[in-house]
Amino acid sequence: MTNIQDQGINPPQRFLLGPGPSNVDPRVLRALTNPPVGHLDPYLLKIYAEEQDLLRMLFKTENEWTFALSGTGTSGMEAAMANLIEPDDQVLIAINGYFGARLAEIASRLGAQVDRIECPLGDIFTVETIEAALEKKNYKIFALIHAETSTGAEQLNIKQISEVVHRYNALFVLDTVTSLAGIPVEVDEWVIDIAYSASQKSISAPSGLAPITVSPRAQNIIENRTSPVSSFYLDLKGYAGYWGQSHLYHHTASASQHYALFTALNIIAEEGLQARFNRHMENAQLLWEGLTNLGCAPFIPIQYRLPVLTTAQVPKSINPHTIRNELLSEFNIEIAAGFGDLKEKVWRIGLMGYSSSKENIALLLAALGQLLER
Amino acid sequence: MTNIQDQGINPPQRFLLGPGPSNVDPRVLRALTNPPVGHLDPYLLKIYAEEQDLLRMLFKTENEWTFALSGTGTSGMEAAMANLIEPDDQVLIAINGYFGARLAEIASRLGAQVDRIECPLGDIFTVETIEAALEKKNYKIFALIHAETSTGAEQLNIKQISEVVHRYNALFVLDTVTSLAGIPVEVDEWVIDIAYSASQKSISAPSGLAPITVSPRAQNIIENRTSPVSSFYLDLKGYAGYWGQSHLYHHTASASQHYALFTALNIIAEEGLQARFNRHMENAQLLWEGLTNLGCAPFIPIQYRLPVLTTAQVPKSINPHTIRNELLSEFNIEIAAGFGDLKEKVWRIGLMGYSSSKENIALLLAALGQLLER
Q: How far apart are CA A252 and CA A338, in angstroms?
């Protein structure tokens, strides 16, 4: 017995201007209306293969091991660490926000000896600071967040940092969860050993898939581990067998999720990466100008301010959470609170992928202006 | 620039009669057309809460810790093991097919001392065999597959096995990936400590979410571990914080996936669990009769034959893979090959959730009949 009146799913239509997920193009939703095929159906195998090419285009890499893991961005972070780390390995993590701290926690849970270098929330690291830390021990892995979603800071000088990391014979893991498809990421040019991302930020697909790419050097280390990867689910050799020519069963990937990711990646290819980066930057500048006019100037200095995620300073005497709740309940606009020490001081405003549009910015600034004047 | 002609996603319309995924109800696809909201949007929090109630109905449990993990069924398996196992714990796994072996591999990778009891493919365990194995050591965990998807055998006497397991003070982990929502699962009545499943089998949602439920006893053990869970991504305490009243950030769940799961769970509630079990059994009997008439009698004895997954014997002189490929290419019907030693001997035919219908069975039998006569 089906109901004539199917109440069903009927969510509010939100403007997603927080740290992710971003809004998805209607074409992505239309892709989701297609019935799933089997996870090893010849049709889906073609999609996996084309996704690999599109992800290589995004990461700017020729790495053979380039997949989308069946999990969120955090599964990508954990996969990078779990596949490289063997018990008691020395790992150095640079922390300038929440996600750097998460990287360190994940590495530590996996049995690594973790050292942390930290800088204040909103700052970025100098090449010299990182070199001074690398000098102290024989680290196997150095990991860093490219775009710290908790503060809105872009770590600069990745190529120079990479040169230092490799001079000290460490592997370089770069978190590109928020940066990929929003600002330039150059995996091969920067000599990154593992980079991972998430489907729901600048790529603008629903969450649930984690793009990841592995250099031949890191692949070789993973293939020659002395202990098995503690996680079967996130074992990259399992993925290589599943996505490779032999298509060995590893888990049951979701056709629906891949319909969505494939479509989102094609939309990116149509726009062109450079045009997409330009759009993100031009729109960010509009946002920054408008925020400054409202007395909510960006918190991060312009030199390393992320176009995809802006921390806007909350004016004195304003309760940031009240405003945030009103934006959601009155205007259907989602923005986020600050993290940690910044919780009462900033809002986090994302302009990622499909969400980065002039009309969204005009709406947000108008709504925020009204609410601040109350 | 968008294309006027959007080639996009246009998959073949398959009849999914393999071991999963199953077909989804069109209402599930319609749910997916809704734009994702943020992962902690008040609307989605209501969906999480209602899903918890619906999953408790499915698992027949009052367990507080009842969630849908953001990963496939394998992530549920790994979460069960990773949250209970501490290094060098003694674990006993019963293996009568591929998925029991996977459980043992996962437990072993997590640092447990794993003992295996095995029986031939297609057999099930007696309570006595399991008791004899439990006697030998002080096991912390005993794990078992309820419905072995690789053979089509249903492990009987779960309640009696559970009594023995708890008499020996072990925790009882039950894999219900293929059974949940297809045949009775009674988590509280059977005194199961952790049961987990997958969204794409008898539940008939797209894959990518893993329902899981944890007894208060297992919850207490997890909350009082001496070492942290090696996987941050699958840490059930993280899930409890994320799904609980405080809604602490843990990862970015997919609104789209939850729209689909929520809809599939509501469809199950409308049908009623007992009616659903009856439908699965009645349709399975139709299939078995038809297969027998075609000379492809079921491999598993009727006493413990799964209605949701049938292994059908391949007639002599027939190449099972040719027939399987023809079913797919000529009739858009997906069935699967056998596993391991059964690879050349059986086909695996799933009748799960939305795929379990009289018309699908009539079509499959007609198509198979035509191909066998060639």
A: 37
